[in-house]
Amino acid sequence: MRSAEFSTTTTLPAAAEEVFEHLADPNNHVGLSPLVVEVRDIRHGPDAVRFTAVERFTLGPLRHDNVIEVTLRLGEGTITGDVVSPGGVRVAYGYRVDPVPGGTQVIDHYRLSAPFGLLRFAMGQAKKVQAARGRELARRFTAKRSQA
C-alpha cells in the first residue's frame, strides 16, 4: 500500500479553547468537511468522542453515501483520529490547536494510505476537503467575531 502525508495551516480570529471545543464537537463536522452531510450516534468518553458520519460522494447525477465510524481522540491541544473507508483507504488525521497573537493557529495533518490505483484519487479528495475545512473554519470564526 502506498501512502502520502500533507498538512495545511489556518489562523483563526478566536481563542484556542473555543477552536478546540468546536473541532471536538461532532455536530460541528457537518459542513466542515464538504463531504460530511450527517453525524449521528455520538458517544462521549473521558479522552475520546465516537460517532457515525455520513460522507456523500457525487459524480454528476450519481450519489454514494459512505457511512464511517469516527473516533476523535482528545489530547492537550490536539485532536487525532483514524478512518477506514471502502476500498482499503485509510486516513490518520490530526489537528494541532495553538494560540498565536490575535487568535489561534490550526495545523490540519493527514496521513493517507491506499491500494495501488486509489492513492492519487483519495489524496486529491482529501486535499480538497482539507482546503475547504480551512476556509469553512475561517468563515465560521470570522462570522462569530463580527456578530460579537
Automatic annotation (TrEMBL):
<dbReference type="Pfam" id="PF10604">
    <property type="entry name" value="Polyketide_cyc2"/>
</dbReference>
<dbReference type="InterPro" id="IPR019587">
    <property type="entry name" value="Polyketide_cyclase/dehydratase"/>
</dbReference>
<dbReference type="InterPro" id="IPR023393">
    <property type="entry name" value="START-like_dom_sf"/>
</dbReference>
<protein>
    <recommendedName>
        <fullName>Polyketide cyclase</fullName>
    </recommendedName>
</protein>
